[in-house]
Amino acid sequence: MNMPEIKATMVFERADGKKSTVSVSDADPAVTAAELNSAMDLILAKNVFAPDNNEFVKKISGKLISTTTQDFEMSV
């Protein structure tokens, strides 16, 4: 049986007004909204990302995405 892949996705607004997304693969499916919110606050406070030299200035959204993949054998 295939287990779902869980990814945490966080969207931020940059200083230039554009949006940037940070995704974390293999996220814990038990992550709460409060924990994701805190992680986003920490990313903002530490200023660890600056795509195209534009700092993240605020949080836009965060979510967990669950993906299940079903592989099939192909006959030749």
From TrEMBL:
InterPro entries: DUF2922. It comes from Acetobacterium woodii (strain ATCC 29683 / DSM 1030 / JCM 2381 / KCTC 1655 / WB1). Pfam families: DUF2922. This is DUF2922 domain-containing protein.
